User: What shape does this take?
Amino acid sequence: MDRIQMTYGGHMRALFTLGLPLIGGHVAQFAVGLTDTIMLGWYSVDALAAVVLATQLFFLVFILGSGFAFAVMPMVAEALATEDDTAIRRTTRMGLWLSVIYALVCLPLFWFSRPVLVAAGQDPILSEAAQGYLRIAGVGLIPALIVMVLKSYLAALEHTRVVFWITIAAAVINGFVNYALIFGNWGAPELGIQGAAIASLSVQVVMLIGAVLYAVWALPQDDLFTRIWKPDWEAARRVFMLGVPIGFTTLAEVGLFAAGTLMMGWLGTVQLAAHGIALNLAGLMFMVHLGLSNAATVRAGNAMGRKDAEHLARGARTAIAMSMVYAVFSVIIFVTQSEFLVSLFLDPNDANFDAILAAGAVLLIAAAMFQFVDGLQAMALGVLRGIMDTRGPMIMAAISYWLVGVPCSYFMGFTLGWGGLGVWFGLGLGLAVAAVLLLWRFWRGKLGVLRKSFAG
Assistant: This one.
């Protein structure tokens, strides 16, 4: 591949080829949680509100631990560019080690989640139901994090199609098991929210089996699982040092939305249910940005391995441009189809149907307002991770989301009395500040340093 002469069209094709299966995989993965939300919304509003609380807590824990998986991606991509097969194997194995250790440490939090949620100001009855969900689905944290590491390993080696197909299969299985166990169809017991938890756990196990079998079959030269019990402390240290800041960076963003969820819970069940629906729809659209961001990470890691700053810069510009084009599409959909999209999550015969529909439609229009900045911050993070820059972005994320986003959400939502709309305006402001700071760090800081370093 040409190092400097590669055109923007070439970058677009490369990002599209690498990113499309990743986008599909993220969408399919997100569909697992989305299916839970839709079906539980049909089952009862209380069940929907409880699973919103439960999945937010699960996702907070999951996303912090996924930092090790995200660290594997650029490290393997750089090792691939330098043809260092040993580094590929060492990095991935220790990513698996750290992920499993983290998951085991976190499991008690899910088992005793009710007092945590109650202490956060949530309704005790909803918190009890959320704990029942997490005591089952929480076990899925172990296979979920292992799968994340394997996905990063496969994506960095540009084996992205299998990631897509494994996730599609899991999403389909989740839908069938949900339909059977939530409502008691096909002779199965009616388990409600516990049925959704069983379905989610089943899906994580299916994905784990699929990812392991493919890695063993398609990449036998890596010997990924041979003597996997043997520690490699140097590789573990490198993955840990890169992964922890990534985990906290992502946690800061997810924590912003989790804080928004807690605030919406203070406004009542209807507002919380509407928030959960709008958040799921916004998250679904974000999966495209996330897939492009992952592709940008891999491409940036390759550029680092080849010491090609111009290739890095052109790839970053292309990823940002593609993300912004997609953001226009997202805004149009949210603004023109808000009520229809929200209605998909609800039973028309539910007593709260009209109230949730109205509140959700307003929140979805608010979500449309920050599609651009959400995409920008995702692309900036993807490229910065590709060049192994994680500590600075972690600090910037903490400032943007917790010193700007969360206080502004509370101020607009409660001090000014704007309610749920004010909470969402604060979320958007936090994302906007993050986008500005992260883009500035890459274009005005790191890129210039790398150009000088590679030239020397």
